[in-house]
Specification:
The chain has a single domain, classed as L,D-transpeptidase catalytic domain-like. The chain is built from one helix and ten strands; from the N terminus they run βββββββββαβ. A hairpin with an 8-residue loop joins β5 and β6. The chain is mostly beta strands and 112 residues long. Belongs to the YkuD family.
């Protein structure tokens, strides 16, 4: 049984999905802008919701830091840029692939 964890590297704007210590997938992400930076630290996935509405695209993975999450986007041009209010944005097809793999309580490390 896989032991998934997520590492978000803010400096290279990538999300890495690991099984144990091996990177099995990587995805480009959009991150928080200067005034609303994405927080760094250790979190967990606390909820999952398909089609959350609004600007959150196809899926929402809520983090243990309230009001922050990993989600899809209606603006694919924002991926790879500093544009959000602190959340981690992914292409819709990428967030759907990630959500299908990771269970609740998956560890998420966000590093600078």
């Amino acid at each position: 049984m896989p032991t998934y964890r997520i590492i978000v590297d803010l400096s290279d704007r990538k999300l890495y999905l690991l099984d144990g210590n091996s990177v099995i997938r990587q995805f480009p992400v959009g991150i928080g802008r200067m005034l609303t930076r994405t927080p760094s630290g250790e979190f967990t996935v606390v909820n999952k919701q398909a089609n959350p509405g609004g600007p959150f695209g196809a899926f929402w993975l809520g983090l243990s830091k309230p009001h922050y999450g990993i989600h899809g986007t209606n603006d694919s041009a924002s991926i790879g840029r500093e544009v959000s209010h602190g959340c981690i944005r992914m292409y819709n097809q990428d967030v759907l692939a990630l959500a299908a793999l990771v269970p609740l309580r998956t560890r998420v490390t966000i590093r600078k």
